[in-house]
Design a protein that fits this description.
Length: 389
């Protein structure tokens, strides 16, 4: 059996979520749940009711009103829609065309902003982070100009798990009347998210990162924030996200969001304890250091830098021994080049960087097996020259 320690890449579907989704997929189990939620007849109304229940669940999990919750096809779409939509609407209203973000954002944010700059005439400032992987609020706020229309700072990083100081950044941006967008895909269910107190105006989630289904996301958009749509069509989701709604997926997203928040009080300390056990086991091998702040960090993430080993060789050796981990983000694996996040914190390309992320299904036995395999793989690689190409 594979020991799965890559929960930042994706998480297994929780059986409770699967059970809630099943009637929406299986006509034998519950006939007549396949209607289009936009249809006005009885079949449509049944589906619509389920969508609205899921919207209520997500809204409650985020502490916002249901009207502020829009369903998308994932985190990537939610980030794209938020940034492009806010930027277009703000420029049209004559409020400016400058964006601010950080160097460690997910590519869904960085590449959206790059595209706005390269093809749409916007300008942007990408703010560096410290070697601890945390952005300095003063440095970020110094990048805000009179014509800045949106600042995008992730709640927590997907590679190194560092939690960003939105509690300081958000209120300062609110005072300046600049919209804050946050990619909370990794933070949701693992760290506090105070939408109201922090003045978050737009926020992205992805259901498959919190034991929900793949291909479903959430864009939380404050009611009075003007955006232009990416997709044009039937005008679903307040006219922001046209397209027939994915009822089974959205039902799953709703229950998954409810469970993630309900379980946080027990799950966060459990994950932190597992991560602590893992980290001390990994470090016992020698010359293994933690990438990113130990304090401002998601509880499930141990991204380590290993001396004397090649990263790809170590990852392949761990894979052969049944340990599923990652070097950076899942989208980057196999891609050529060093992770932009590791580069931003000044990590060395000569060392191996391995991301271990625990989750709801992780046990102490998994951690102990991972430590034993890591010890064997690193020892063997170092003995054979590190596995460098
Ligand atoms: N943002 C972050 C921080 C992520 O980790 C991911 C997924 O890896 C995404 C966005 C994209 O989410 P999705 O896979 O739902 O498109």
């Amino acid at each position: 059996m594979t020991v799965y320690l890559d929960h930042a890449a994706t998480t297994p579907l929780d059986p409770r979520v699967r059970d809630a989704m099943r009637p929406w997929l299986d006509d034998d189990q519950a006939p007549g749940r396949w209607g289009n939620p936009s249809s006005t007849h009885a079949l449509g109304r049944i589906a619509r009711e389920a969508i609205e229940t899921a919207r209520d669940q997500v809204a409650a999990a985020l502490g916002v009103t249901p009207l502020e919750v829009l369903f998308t096809a994932g985190g990537t779409e939610a980030d794209n829609q938020a940034l492009k939509g806010i930027a277009w609407a703000a420029r049209e209203a004559g409020r400016g065309s400058h964006l601010v973000t950080t160097a460690i954002e997910h590519h869904a944010v960085l590449d959206s902003i790059d595209w706005l700059v390269a093809h749409q005439g916007f300008s942007a400032t990408v703010v560096a982070v410290g070697t601890d992987g945390v952005v300095d609020p003063e440095r970020l706020l110094a990048a805000v100009q009179a014509d800045t229309v949106v600042v995008s700072v992730m709640a927590a990083n997907n590679e190194i798990g560092t939690v960003q100081p939105l509690d300081v950044i958000g209120p300062a941006l609110r005072e300046r009347h600049v919209a804050l967008h946050t990619d909370a895909v990794q933070a949701f269910g693992r760290a506090p998210l105070e939408v109201d107190a922090w003045g978050i105006r737009a926020l992205a989630l992805s259901a498959h990162k919190f034991n929900g289904p793949k291909g479903v996301g959430v864009l939380m958009l404050r009611r009075d924030l003007a955006v232009q749509p990416l997709l044009h069509g039937g005008g679903q989701e307040r006219g922001v996200r046209s397209g027939t709604l994915n009822a089974p997926g959205i039902v799953g997203c709703g229950i998954a969001a409810e469970l993630a928040v309900a379980d946080m009080a027990t799950e966060v300390p459990r994950l932190a304890a597992l991560r602590g056990r893992l980290l001390s086991g990994l470090q016992a091998v020698g010359d293994v250091t933690l990438n990113g702040s130990a304090a401002a960090r998601l509880p499930h993430n141990a991204n380590v830098s290993v001396g004397g080993c090649d990263g790809e060789a170590l990852l392949a050796a761990l894979d052969r021994s049944g340990i599923a981990v990652s070097t950076g983000s899942a989208c980057q694996s196999g891609a050529v080049g060093f992770s932009h996040v590791l580069e931003a914190i000044g990590a060395s390309e000569d060392r191996a960087h391995v991301r271990f992320t625990c989750g709801r299904t992780t046990t102490e036995a998994d951690i102990d097996k991972a430590i034993a395999s890591f010890t064997d793989c690193v020892t063997a690689l170092r003995a054979s020259g590190g596995g460098y190409l």
